[in-house]
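User: I'm putting together a teaching handout on how sequence relates to shape, and I'd like one worked example. Could you take Chemotaxis protein CheW from Candidatus Methylospira mobilis, show the sequence you're using, and then write out its predicted structure as tokens right after it?

Assistant: Happy to. First the sequence, then the structure tokens directly below it.
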Amino acid sequence: MMQARTPEPPQSDLVLRVLLRKLQCAIYLDYIERVLPLAALQPVPGAPHHLAGLLNYRGLSLPVVDLGAWLGIAGKEPYHIDTPMLLCSDGQTRIGFVVNEVMQIEQAEASTVQLQAAFSSSGSPFAASLNTGAGLALLLDMKQIMTLNFADAAINCQVDAHLLSVLTTA
């Protein structure tokens, strides 16, 4: 389980809205280097189900994680040549993340970023709820996610009962 933390404000208030299976999520653009079509991946025998494989990116071997699988969202779809992959970096680590759809870039004004306290105290992979004209999306806590070792089979994402109780009573 991820540790509780205090979210830091991003440099930019722009987010990329993505679809992870049927769940709308958002990622601050600060973390996204590129959006690429999913290239040929090298499978890793014995890897956890969420590790889609390794990508040779400009001579570097990068792990590629299926975010929907890691989050435990049902409904896996087969990958195809048009499956989008986000190449993300926090300045120290680069990871590829498979998403089902890249939707749009939008501004995350302070008033639209909600429930930060509930998410930050739960060890959740989410930093907040984002409520914009395009609907609700869960804002991924990329600062925390980028520190995880996704090759470790014990790195599983679970939303705890406390967070679920806060969200259902909010």
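A couple of points you could highlight for students: The two ends are 23 Å apart (CA to CA). The CA atoms of residues 53 and 129 lie 30 Å apart.
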